[in-house]
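I am writing to request your help with a piece of structural work I have in hand. What I wish to show you is a protein chain and, alongside it, a tokenised description of its three-dimensional fold. Could you please explain, in whatever detail you think fit, how the structure tokens follow from the sequence? You will find the record immediately after this paragraph.
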Amino acid sequence: MVRINSEVKPFTTDAFHNGKFVTVSDADIRGKWTVFFFYPADFTFVCPTELEDLADHQADFDKLGVQIFSVSTDKHFTHKAWHDTSPAIGKIKYTMLGDPTGTIARSFDVLIEDAGLADRGTFLVDPEGKIQYIEITAGGVGRSATELLDKIQAAQYVASHPGEVCPAKWKEGGTTLKPSLDLVGKI
């Protein structure tokens, strides 16, 4: 089972990125903060609203040095067709990974085996290739890019400030905590 601090398993797949077909592997995540954003299928209903939301916040992810990989069990050819025909998906500048065999979805434990589709799963991976954030929602529940950005900022802050933690509702520039015996029972 995938857990916090587990490493991303090796993979290689075809993808669609900026009008071209490219090959992406686990080597492409080393040294970078990466979001794997799994969704059930192209040409559906909730999925384009989520992917458009990510696209609308691309500059915010770029400022944080985060690359986005959206992933479904569709082929990279299908991603291109969707990108070319949907105004919402046409906004996407991030990489859309094809996972027609379900190998990547299975390695992140989000493959719905009997349907051959991925659950709505979001994974934040640190530059060492370790998972730092996991969110999995029901098929009918869309996710928010702004909430994801808050989680990324907190994870990056904690990674660069050993000994500090971010409390609930923390926003960039907010007060953090330094766990110690002195704080026990005082929060």
